[in-house]
Amino acid sequence: MEAPEPKNIIKKIRQTGIIPMFHHEDPEICKSVIKACYDGGIRVFELISNGTRTMENFVSIKKYIHHSLPEMYLGTGGIKDAATADTFIHFNTDFISCPIQDKETGDICKKRKILWIPGCTTPTEIAAAEKNGANIVRLFPGESQTTLSFRVIKTIFSDMQFIMAGGIEPSAAGIIPWLETGILGASMGGRLISPEMLTHKHHPFLKERVKKLLKTIRQWRQQSIA
Predict the structure, then answer these.
(1) Model-level pTM greater than 0.85?
(2) CATH entry, 6-225, from 3.20.20.70, 3.30.565.10, 3.90.1150.10, 1.20.120.450
């Protein structure tokens, strides 16, 4: 299966402003969570690589998305080395997201024409990612950044696109100040997908939470253009 164009994934991230991050050992729970997010308007989802059945689960979930959620881009997060990245690329992941900046992983993604989103904390790490071919990075952990510090970083790396990973609440007060700084979007895990939403009967609440957040982002963008 041919990998999607990185620019198309970036476009969807920009449109929604949100990338849910999630992991669970039960693939059926993963599918249900992804479906709720999809129904709420999400089109880019990060499945975190963790646990003993990660590869097996990813194949099952990817097959489900291909048949049932055709507009969803499913990427793999938590990747720390090139060998693991290459395995998930073989299983048709749409992008590779990392908590660190690893040159060999970047080289594999570039060779296979897969979107690579390295994780960086400092300007030195961002500069290394840029040197290694990244044009988008995730600031990780997000809790280590402030909107003020990021504005300074953005002036240094004006050609780089940024995703804030963690530390942002799924609300207008949480996301809008960051979007105003110029980030592409925010990765959200447990703050968006809370533990109580992991039973099927609560998934309508997750769908509505996502819809409300995306509506908030759309309204802010419309006001910003006006």
Answers:
(1) yes
(2) 3.20.20.70
